[in-house]
Amino acid sequence: MAENKVLINKERCKSCGYCVADCPRKALSFSGSLNEKGYNYVQVDDALCVGCGTCYRVCPDCVFEIVE
Predict the structure, then answer these.
(1) Where residue 68 falls among pLDDT bands split at 50, 70, 90?
(2) How many domains does the chain have?
(3) All residues at 6 or more sequence positions from 21 whose CB lies less than 8 Å from its CB, including other chains
(4) What is the mean pLDDT of residues 17-38?
(5) Is the predicted pLDDT of residue 44 greater than 70, yes or no?
(6) What single DSSP character describes residue 62?
(7) Residues 1 and 58: beta-carbon distance below 8 Å
(8) Which domain covers residue 15, as residue numbers?
(9) pLDDT reported for residue 10
């Protein structure tokens, strides 16, 4: 059984922090870099992420994609 992977569209991220706060594995953090709109977008630590989809569900801006 393959693990899910989280892909991030950094240009959609508006730094709301919902995903960072709600990630049960603490796999998300702010990157320290800005996207084209000037927001500090999130990044995923693939070593911690299990692809549970919490970030996908809480994100109001469709930043995340869960792939197998």
Answers:
(1) confident
(2) 1
(3) none
(4) 98
(5) yes
(6) -
(7) no
(8) 5-67
(9) 98
How far apart (Å, rounded) are the C-alpha atoms in residues 47 and 62? Answer: 23
In order, the DSSP letters of 8-35 are E-TTT-----HHHHH-TT--EEEEEEE-
Rounded CA gap, 59 and 2, in Å? Answer: 24
What does the chain come to in residues? 68
Q: Is the pTM of this model over 0.85?
A: yes
SS3 state at 68 = coil
Mean pLDDT for the chain overall: 95
For residue 43, the domain's CATH number is 3.30.70.20
The letter for the amino acid at 6 is V
What is the signed CA dihedral for 60, 63, 43, 17, rounded to 10 degrees? -10
The Cα–Cα gap between 62 and 2 comes to 23
Region 15-29: mean pLDDT is 98
